[in-house]
Write a structure and sequence with these properties.
This protein has eleven helices and nine strands. By secondary structure, the protein is α+β, with helices and mostly antiparallel strands. It is elongated, with a radius of gyration of 31 Å. The chain starts with a strand and ends with a strand. The relative contact order is 0.21.
Length: about 300
């Protein structure tokens, strides 16, 4: 019985493949991809989600007509102060969303809640409450051996093994995703974490800290406005103007008192974060494609060692 062959071209080389070899060429890359998926899912990862809405109220707003009666110079000074305050990030939906995504907020959050031990658990000695030296990879060992003399390696070792701030930021930013749903205007905050209970707590702490961060910024801006008006008040001698300036200060103090209310939170939780019951199934397309191509090329080379012909 005649065997059926399929000719496969690789560059300038042609390979004559039988049906069995062609099946092998498909089987082994498929097996490699299956093993790859099993390996990356050995450690389960959970996806914790919450959804927020953003409040866009203006703190320290000047009531319409409240500046009437003040000299033009005073009105201009107060209005410029108010515009600077608004431009600093109090009002706009997009500005508050930018603050929520900002590197500054995430850096401060990591430091405030001491998240480095959770982000680098293998480098943190919980029993002795100290950082330990990370185990070097093969490439790093070879580099140290080539770059340093044996006597210099011990001198080059640093005593402080705490991970750098930028590495902690990069690790958390890869796990924490913030997206805007343009259809309903809600903000989705999601975190991938191996422990669902700890991951949920981190998400809740992040929302709490983001609210405190923005509110503190608004309080600082309003206090700055009050100081500017108080400076004008010291120079003013007319009783009518003094009264109007005092009213401006009072308006801002009222706004400061309202910022302490839960209703003034910039980010309000619509759907609260809950520990998920099932882990996320990971099957990265790029990783699978790389495994398929590498294993396919290796299988093709093995199968065609004695069966290729030069074209």
């Amino acid at each position: 019985m005649a065997k059926h062959f399929m000719r496969i071209k690789l560059g300038r080389i042609y390979f004559n493949m039988s049906g069995r070899k062609l099946a092998t060429l498909v089987f082994f890359p498929s097996l490699a991809c299956a093993l790859f998926i099993i390996l990356i899912n050995l450690k389960p990862t959970y996806l914790i989600k919450t959804e927020l809405t953003i409040s866009t109220s203006l703190p320290g707003e000047i009531k319409k007509g409240s500046l009437k009666g003040l000299p033009r110079a005073l009105r201009r000074t107060i209005r410029v102060s108010q515009k600077i305050s608004i431009a600093s990030g109090q009002a706009s939906f997009q500005e508050k969303l930018a603050i929520l995504k900002s590197e500054n907020l995430l850096d401060n959050f990591i430091e405030q809640y001491n998240l480095k031990p959770l982000l680098f658990p293998k480098r943190w000695d919980n029993a002795n409450q100290k950082w330990i030296k990370p185990e070097p990879g093969i490439i790093k060992i070879i580099f140290e051996w080539v770059a340093f003399q044996p006597s210099d390696i011990s001198k080059s070792r640093r005593k402080n093994f705490e991970p750098k701030d930028h590495k902690a930021f990069k690790r958390l930013s890869n796990k924490l995703k913030i997206k805007l749903n343009k259809k309903n205007g809600l903000i989705s905050v999601s975190l991938k974490w191996q422990n669902p209970a700890i991951g949920t707590e981190i998400v809740e702490d992040f929302i709490t800290y983001a609210n405190d961060f923005v509110l503190q910024k608004e309080q600082d801006d309003i206090n700055s406005e009050i100081k500017n008006i108080e400076q004008l008040l010291k120079k003013e001698k007319r009783a009518v103007n003094i009264k109007l300036l005092l009213e401006q200060i009072e308006q801002r103090k009222i706004r400061l008192s309202t910022l302490a209310s839960p209703l003034s939170q910039p980010f309000k939780v619509v759907i609260a974060a809950k520990p998920p019951a099932e882990p996320v199934f990971k099957s990265p397309i790029i990783g699978l494609l790389a495994v398929w191509l590498l294993s396919g090329a290796f299988t093709l080379i093995v199968l065609s060692r004695n069966s290729y012909t030069q074209y």
